[in-house]
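Checklist before submission:
- one chain only
- standard amino acids only
- sequence pasted in full

Submission:
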Amino acid sequence: MEKLRNMWNLTVDELLNKVTWPTWDQLRESAIIVLIASVIFASILWVIDALLGTGLNFFYNLFK
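Returned file contents:
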């Protein structure tokens, strides 16, 4: 039990005294960047999926 308590105390000490936490402005900026990148990536995947789906449907209809 002492090892667990020691590990907990070390974890709390590290989180409070050694970790550099971002400010709210930095956090907001990072979240916006991630959101924009996610939308762009999802849009690219949607376009690729639509093009491949259309192409494969055309290809399959050639052999009906």
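Reviewer check: The CA atoms of residues 2 and 24 lie 36 Å apart.
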